[in-house]
Amino acid sequence: MSESARVAGFGTTVFSEFSALARQVSAVNLGQGFPDFDGPLEIKQAAIDAINGGVNQYAITHGAASLRQAVAQHAERFYGQKVDPETEVSVASGATEVIFDAIMGLTNPGDEIVIFEPFYDSYVASAEMAGARCRYVRLNAPDWSFDEGELAAAFTEKTRLVIVNTPHNPTGKCFTRDELQLIGKLAAARGAVILSDEVYEHLVYAPNRHLRPATVPGLAERTLTVSSGGKSFSFTGWKIGWALGPRALVRATQKAHQFVTFATASPFQEAIARALQLPDTYFEGFERDYRHKRDFLSAALKAAGFEPFTPQGTYFVIADAGRHARADDFETCRWLTREVGVAAIPPSAFYSAEHKADAKRFIRFAFCKTDATLATAAKRLASLGR
Ligand code: PMP
Ligand code: GLN
User: Fold this and answer.
1) Which residues, 6+ apart, have CB-to-CB distance to 138 below 8 Å?
2) Which CATH superfamily is domain 5-39+281-385 in?
3) With a threshold of 0.90, does the pTM exceed it?
4) How far is the centre of ligand 1, averaged over its atoms, from the C-alpha of 383 (Å)?
5) Which of 32, 119, 165 to mutate to test the pocket of ligand 2 (most atoms within 8 A of CB)?
6) Fold of 41-275
7) Ligand 2 pocket mutation, candidates 19, 30, 34, 200, criterion most atoms within 8 A of CB
8) Ligand 2 atom, smallest distance to 120 CA
9) What is the pLDDT of residues 168-180, one digit of tens each?
10) What single DSSP character describes residue 313?
């Protein structure tokens, strides 16, 4: 039996490929972005209590009331955003599903989606499955800014969506107010929706601050904000995500969700509802720990002859391979995994076919790892010398 044309072009994701290679050669895995530690004990206990307390049947399709309430309170607490938990919040199985649901719910085949590249790889796969066409706008090193003319040219009468990811995977860029205003102006001129992926909202390093696009004047009415509990609470395996924003956008997303998974794991919704209400000290400590990890890994990379670009947010750092560069980034990452024992991700996986060459010298490292893991990686990298 042959595969559908919809999936025939998909290979194995770069994350699966490099995690498998890391296991095979016992490399320290700084590739796929998942913490090698658990989130707060009390949040694990909340999930266990929910299971033991009988929260084990289908949740309400648009999300447990407790979680929708917590998402709304969190939006008000951190961004002063007022959303109705009944009609302006919808829960799904991770940000990945919400993004797929939103694309399915908001685009027709032949519509266009503006995407900044590099991009998180599920955007393009979701767009392809929906029959939408992607128009790419490049973020350029070292500061990952974009050309305004290139952005304006990406918008056409067919543009239905523009996906903004801030803080941005894999570059660590935080979009500025001016950039968001410009995106908003272009989107408004075409009647397009801004899909804002903010899964790294709590991983922004001072003096940078997370600027939620929906809070930029004029953008709220056309912005669907997406986030999830995976990164902020170190439970990537729980897959609890949500969308919030104008009723019509949330409803379109929810309509797709009810026939993708119908409902999302109920005990984990209760636990993430608790997590969103953790005190400020949790979020401050979280950022502090990660800043330390970012600085430690960046120093280790420099000492080994790589040239890291300091990320403003996220738990990733992109480095130029410097004198270690092989023929392309896949070759460099395979060499690093096999010969040095440190796995990383080749960023060309996050570029369109046309622009993969832009990433030839880059490597992406994840620093969502214990200090001990990072120290082992640093020791192995040190074998390369300067
Ligand atoms: N968006 C970005 C930018 C990501 O890096 C990730 C990481 N997995 C996701 C979405 C997916 O989040 P989730 O695990 O909640 O599906
Ligand atoms: N978001 C994570 C990363 O970029 C991994 C997501 C995944 O494995 N699909 O590394």
Assistant:
1) 116, 117, 146, 147, 150, 355, 358
2) Aspartate Aminotransferase, domain 1 (3.90.1150.10)
3) yes
4) 33
5) 32
6) Aspartate Aminotransferase; domain 2 (3.40.640)
7) 34
8) 4
9) 999 999 999 999 9
10) B
